[in-house]
């Protein structure tokens, strides 16, 4: 089944919105701190059962899927016609938006993965020798920031796909305008 650019755009959008939703839910479900339970020369932190780590990882997975789909859809041969990479990136605006999409995806991935892993470490390593520990959790607001960067990344992938559509049209018009087509070249 051949995909159209509209279909790939919808896939990128759906995956990005799901990543955003999971990131926002992870931020909202994250507890402010754990409950310290004093022991002999240690404090054991008891954390309430919450889905923050799972939601964080789901947000990361969907952001990666959205970005990989966005990247691959730039070079996909729609209607069986492919365009050389160098021809696409001759357009400076496309080149800039492509790199902004990559940067925001990477930054969003970092801001989602860091608090997820930190939260998981807090839950696993919950015995502290410091008797004054307050049972910390991941920093508040980082999940939300990562979620919004996930949404930004999705929007930049969509803009990049629109620019690729224009660059593809320009490339094929130039190929027709040269007066040479593959059949006439093959007859020589």
Automatic annotation (TrEMBL):
InterPro entries, per the entry: DEAL/Modifying_wall_lignin1/2, DESIGUAL
One Pfam match, given by its short name, reads: DUF1218
Q: Which branch of life, at top level? A: Eukaryota
Q: Where in the cell is it found?
A: Endomembrane system
**How does the protein's chain sit in the membrane according to the entry?**
Multi-pass membrane protein
Query: Keywords in UniProt for this one?
Result: Membrane, Signal, Transmembrane, Transmembrane helix
For this record, an example GO cellular component is: endomembrane system
Q: Does the keyword Transmembrane helix apply?
A: yes
Family as reported in the entry's similarity comment? Belongs to the DESIGUAL family.
Q: What is this protein called?
A: Uncharacterized protein
* Native organism: Punica granatum
